[in-house]
Write a structure and sequence with these properties.
By secondary structure, this protein is an all-alpha fold. The chain contains 16 helices and 2 strands.
Length: 329
């Protein structure tokens, strides 16, 4: 049976509506899925987010203003100390040194990873023409990223061993050094961590940049070839400008990850010798997990979060301003 509608702007004069359109499904069994399915699909992720992200964050902010340590935490007798934990963190020479180490790591570690990622991604796409060889090389480059950072730390700790490590052995055989390099001495230990991290994580920005290069429209390059543009001109005037946003995203991803860099430091040097390879996140780990100064560790975490959020926000605003000036955004 059908229902005829005599008027209406959408139905038109004399339009006939089918029975399924006008009938109301009052029986829950007629639904495509049970009522609990959408509730579960939305509710379970929200509960998980509350349990592992929101509640720990609120807990951390609360204890950053308390004199909490492990004993007081179990006895529930901590007391409010205001901004004392933050004053301790910001006035600490240890924290100041770790910030300088982080600047070096971001500049020569994260920066080098993005530069190498751009070179390798464009080389794979532009130079390697055989698809099978390109896939094999891409898989080999990505393999280090698939290893757990703790395993990478142990591997590079053995490779950089001064007496019989593979790196010193190779450098001696090539004549680049005359005596073995003490990779874990003061002033050098941080660079050994940076070397291991570059080997471990260059593949991440490489994948982002390579995907961006694959997605660029071929018509632009065909027009450039018709106009007689050479390879270097195409790279400088077309490829790199069109990949600016993708490269910035790759840098931001690694930049954000650098602020929670703990595992390689812990495995390779434990922040030493004499705290010369400590980073802010590692100090927060030491104070909270190993020394049980929970309030101070929470203050460290909040300072690190605030600094990273401010720097990334300023970088994004600058990037948006540049893209608008180039009429891209």
């Amino acid at each position: 049976m059908a229902v005829t509608v005599g008027g209406g702007a959408s139905a038109g004069a004399g339009a006939t509506l089918p029975d399924w359109f006008t009938s109301k499904k009052k029986n829950p069994s007629n639904l495509i899925v049970a009522r609990w399915v959408p509730i579960a699909l939305v509710g379970l992720p929200v509960l998980t987010l509350l349990a592992i992200v929101i509640y720990p964050t609120i807990w951390m902010f609360y204890h950053a203003f308390q004199d909490t340590n492990m004993m007081r935490l179990f006895q529930h007798n901590w007391s409010f100390v205001g901004f004392e934990n933050f004053k301790t963190v910001l006035s600490s020479a240890r924290f100041g040194d770790s910030v300088w180490h982080l600047v070096l790591y971001l500049t020569f570690g994260t920066g080098l990873e993005v530069v190498l990622a751009v070179i390798l991604a464009l080389t794979l796409y532009e130079v390697v023409k055989n698809s099978l060889l390109r896939v094999i090389l891409l898989v080999l480059i990505v393999l280090p990223m698939m290893l757990p950072p703790s395993i990478v730390g142990v591997l590079w700790k053995f490779m950089l061993t001064p007496s019989n490590g593979a790196v010193n052995h190779a450098l001696l055989n090539m004549g680049l050094i005359s005596t073995p390099v003490e990779w874990f001495n003061a002033g050098v230990s941080l660079w050994s961590i940076i070397i291991a991290d570059v080997w471990n994580w260059t593949a991440l920005p490489l994948l982002i940049i390579y995907s961006g290069r694959v997605s660029l429209p071929p018509a632009v390059y065909e027009a450039a070839r018709v106009d007689g543009a050479g390879g270097w001109m195409v790279m400088r005037r077309i490829t790199l400008p069109m990949l600016k946003e993708v490269i910035a995203i790759a840098f931001i991803v690694r930049f954000m990850d650098a602020f929670k860099f703990v595992d390689l430091v812990y495995v390779m040097t434990s922040g030493g010798p004499a705290q010369t390879s400590e980073l802010p996140a590692y100090i927060a780990f030491q104070r909270g997990i190993r020394e049980f100064a929970i309030g101070e560790a929470a203050a460290y975490a909040i300072v690190i979060f605030a600094c990273s959020a401010v720097i990334i926000t300023l970088f994004l605003k600058y990037l948006k301003k540049v893209l608008k000036a180039q009429a891209i955004a």
